[in-house]
Design brief:
Elements lengths: L32 H6 L3 H4 L14 H11 L6 E4 L6 H14 L4 E4 L3 H10 L1 H5 L4 E4 L7 H6 L2 E4 L1 H9 L14 E4 L11 H15 L2 E6 L5 H8 L6 E3 L9 E8 L5 H21 L4 E4 L3 H17 L10 H7 L5 H8 L2 E4 L5 H13 L4 E4 L2 H4 L7 E4 L3 E4 L3 E4 L2 H8 L11 E8 H13 L11 H11 L5 H8 L3 H8 L7 H17 L3 E4 L2 E4 L1 H8 L4 H10 L7 H9 L14 H8 L7 H15 L7 H25 L2 H16 L16 H9 L5 H14 L4 H12 L4 E4 L6 E2 L4 E10 L4 E9 L2 E10 L1 E9 L5 E9 L8 E9 L1
Helix pairs in contact: 3-4, 8-9, 10-21, 11-12, 19-22, 19-23, 23-24, 23-28, 24-28, 25-27, 26-27, 27-28, 27-29, 28-29, 31-32
């Protein structure tokens, strides 16, 4: 790896970068003109890592970027290049340089599905003795593996979480990163996720100063990204369309818009097939992007019939070998479809089914493939013809939204198969009213913008909670590390002047102080418990404020908890379609004080608790439940911190019921390790509704409920590890003389496992004593006072705020004589 090791570092000032690549002239020995045109051999520049690449020679674009990636002092690098031009190989080159120096590389993938793809493809690095470890929210973290990994793979959201927890032993590995590769850095412009990527990269640079290599599809303002990342001019590249492996013809086609949205889908489908048909007849292939998983299936079904009607030669019904191969598919609908030459691809398919479809499309067995937009960000699966049928999509949290311009360009960039097609063809099918907008997008592109201003208060609160911002001066220092600051300096008329930025940040800070998230002492800043919880659970600050207000109530019931979640700002954009309104009313009845979106969320949560979500609501139910689970966990933490253990326990039981769809009397079963909704239902049907029932019933009763002996044995053992409360009254009196006062002690003990608990003692319903304890065992003082009442009923209530167990209550009656 020494061919370019003597390249001098370049100065960090930069002239504007034009569409063609504009690095400073490298030393002549770095790469010759012929090498740049033909591509340099991998083994020549990376002899120890040639096995990590699935090809023998770098292409022209990759070769021109190699000096910046391998030479000099490891300056930050920004590369903008057309889709399918080979940017992933640049990431791998940067990783090889890091590994060769004994460092750790972090790869930020835009989608969770792509982290799994990288893990599979980078077995090539494993074969060379370098470990790859994927860290996502869906996997349990192994801190030892993460710490020892040579290559870490994360989404921006997981990297955000890890950097927020960098000072904990589990996540300390993130501060050891030597190089961070950002795949698809134009994600910065994503409305929901862009600000997360922006602050995470800024935070990571403050924590450990890694080298940054940022890769992007074509973007006009690549120089702004380079300014943000301090990439010098010779390490900033904007490769234009000349570097596309196949020239692209892209255009817009309109359709006749009608009154019926369902019929419009078919109008757009017929338009898409009109555009694809000539290429299919010439033995080309078409990739058609639609808005949802269900639409991929329905469009494929309709297209099969339509292609037959048009007598288009597709399908392989007579190919016995392919017929046999197709039998391996687990999805029955997909199996029938691919035999007709039409496939569909979405994230809901099994990994094996997706892999088979991708392979058959590459081999030409499938002529038309319908997919959601996720395919455009992932597998390199080009086609001669690409059509975007749907430019609008339904978001469960936002309603109908326009597809982002970056998604549109990413999808269109899949047109053209290197080595097969002389030209790629790409079309956007849209309503006439949108046509000019999309034509401008295709001819002018779109600048990458910062989305930080939309969530500035939440992100500033997070930095203060983390301690990375601790005084007034730090606030502006932090802001200057953001892409938002760079764009504001680049286009102040579009953003704000520097003085306006200071005013904006100052106002944001005052709001954080006024609302109780931050404390200010002269110039010093510190977080509050409210601010810490908002940061920990990624809450919008309006939601955190409302949760804190809920904690001030004297009493709380399930309806109040559900309404607090359903009306949270995170669900503000949820809308109820006309076909959903009757289903919502059937669940809730009349709730006129709520808007339609909140009613829909509330109906989904309420019906999920019973395990009977109406069919009309099921398409959005999963996403809404996932977000509600996070909000409920946050609300539980707020109640635990600012209210009491009883309220936190109520929220925990509601959370478990929504997750498992089980009745309130049996929700405690879900506290048992290995018991989910299915097993809980079986046990409840057998009359076993609590962990105590399971312990007492033993293996025999669980087998009678339909569980195997091995499973029953494990569940009984797990139930025994949960807390089992026993109250020992000791010498507590049976009677007390009127006017006498006596102090006694009551011992509360768990004869099962230990857990954090709240203990509450009442007399005739009036609270006397509360105590937080880790059971184990706790002793509680109880006053026995002979007052005016003839009887005193003492109740000892024990609740577990972190477990979905019903409160345990034991009583004792004392006569007043």
């Amino acid at each position: 790896m020494d061919r370019w090791s003597d390249c001098d570092p370049r100065p960090r000032h930069r002239a504007p970068v034009t569409e063609t690549h504009k690095p400073a002239e490298p030393p002549l020995s770095v790469v010759s003109q012929s090498e740049a045109e033909e591509g340099v051999a991998v083994a020549e520049v990376l002899p120890d890592y040639a096995g990590a690449f699935p090809f023998e020679r770098f292409n022209r674009m990759q070769t021109e970027a190699l000096p910046a990636l391998l030479g000099g002092e490891g300056d930050n690098v920004v590369v903008s290049a057309p889709t399918a031009s080979g940017k992933t190989a640049l990431a791998e080159v940067a990783i090889c340089r890091t590994l060769d120096a004994g460092g750790t590389a972090l790869f930020l993938a835009p989608l969770r599905a792509l982290t799994n793809e990288r893990e599979s493809e980078w077995e090539r690095f494993e074969d060379l003795g370098h470990s790859v470890y994927v860290v996502t929210g869906e996997r349990d973290l192994d801190p030892r593996r993460a710490e020892r990994a040579d290559i870490l793979v994360m989404t921006p959201e997981k990297a955000d979480s890890a950097t927020r927890k960098h000072d904990s032993p589990r996540y300390s590995f993130v501060t050891d990163v030597d190089c961070c590769v950002i795949d698809e850095v134009h994600l910065l412009d994503s409305e929901k996720r862009g600000s997360v990527l922006e602050v995470t990269v800024s935070r990571l640079r403050r924590l450990c100063e890694p080298r940054i290599v940022a890769l992007s599809a074509t973007m006009p303002n690549v120089s702004d990204v380079a300014d943000w990342l301090d990439a010098p001019e010779n390490c900033t590249f904007s490769f234009g369309e000349a570097y596309r492996p196949v020239p692209l013809h892209a255009d817009v086609r309109t359709y006749s818009h009608g009154e019926n949205a369902f019929a419009d889908k078919y109008r757009r489908l017929y338009r898409a097939l009109d555009l694809a048909e000539p290429h299919i007849r010439e033995e080309g292939q078409a990739l058609v992007f639609v808005s949802s998983r269900q639409d991929t299936v329905q469009a494929a079904k309709k297209a099969r019939d339509e292609l037959v009607e048009r007598d288009v030669p597709v399908g392989a019904r007579g190919d016995y070998d392919f017929h046999t191969d197709a039998s391996e598919l687990s999805n029955d609908t997909l199996r029938q479809s691919v035999l007709d030459g039409v496939g569909f691809h979405h994230a809901g398919l099994s990994k094996d089914d997706k892999s088979l479809v991708e392979g058959w499309f590459k081999e030409g067995e499938i002529q038309v493939l319908f997919s959601t937009s996720t395919l455009a960000w992932g597998v390199n699966l080009p086609a001669r013809c690409v059509v975007i049928r749907d430019t609008k999509l339904h978001d469960p949290l936002e309603g109908e939204v326009d597809m982002s311009p970056l998604d549109v360009l990413q999808m269109l960039g899949r047109a053209g198969r290197p080595g097969y097609d002389d030209q790629g063809y790409a079309w956007v099918v849209c309503d006439r009213s949108d046509a000019d907008r999309y034509r401008r997008l295709l001819t002018e592109g779109t600048d990458i913008e910062s989305r930080l201003a939309e969530d500035l208060d939440a992100h500033l609160n997070a930095e203060i909670a983390l301690g990375t911002v601790s005084d007034i001066e730090d606030v502006m220092d932090w802001l200057e590390t953001t892409f938002y600051y760079v764009r504001a300096r680049s286009v102040p008329d579009q953003y704000a002047s520097e003085s306006d930025l200071r005013d904006q940040v100052g106002e944001t800070l005052r709001s954080l102080v006024d609302r109780g998230f931050v404390e200010r002492d002269d110039l010093s800043l510190s977080t509050t418990p409210r601010g810490q919880l908002a940061s920990k659970f990624y809450l919008g600050l309006d939601t955190a404020h409302e949760f804190a207000r809920l904690c001030e109530r004297d009493s709380l019931d399930a309806d109040a908890v559900l309404r607090a979640v359903a009306t949270a700002a995170e669900f503000d954009s949820v809308s109820a379609r006309s076909d959903e309104e009757d289903a919502v009313a059937a669940v809730l009845g009349e709730t006129p004080e709520l808007d339609p979106g909140s009613r829909k969320v509330l109906a989904i949560l309420a019906s999920s608790m019973r395990g009977t979500t109406p069919t009309e609501l099921q398409s959005d139910a999963w996403v809404i439940r996932q977000n509600a689970q996070r909000l409920l966990a946050a609300l539980r933490a707020f109640l635990d911190r600012f209210a009491d253990a009883r309220a936190a326990n109520l929220a925990r039981r509601i959370e478990a019921r929504i997750e498992n769809g089980i009745s309130d009397d049996a929700v405690g079963l879900t506290a048992i390790d290995g018991v989910g909704s299915g097993r809980a239902g079986k046990l409840a049907a057998e009359g076993l509704t609590t962990p105590a029932d399971v312990r007492e019933g033993g293996v025999e009763r669980l087998q009678a409920a339909g569980l195997s002996a091995g499973v029953a044995d494990r569940i009984v053992e797990s139930a025994g590890e949960l807390p089992a409360v026993v109250v020992e009254w000791g010498d507590f009196p049976d009677a007390v003389a009127r006017g006498d006062n006596d102090m006694r002690e009551v011992t509360v003990r768990s004869v099962g496992g230990a857990a954090r608990a709240g203990i509450r003692v009442t007399v005739n319903g009036v609270e006397m004593t509360t105590k937080a304890s880790y059971l184990g065992e706790a002793t509680v003082p109880v006053g026995v006072f002979g007052g005016d009442a003839d009887e005193l009923e003492f109740a000892v209530e024990v609740v577990f705020p972190e477990l979905p167990l019903h409160p345990s209550v034991e009583t004792r009656t004392v006569r007043v004589t």
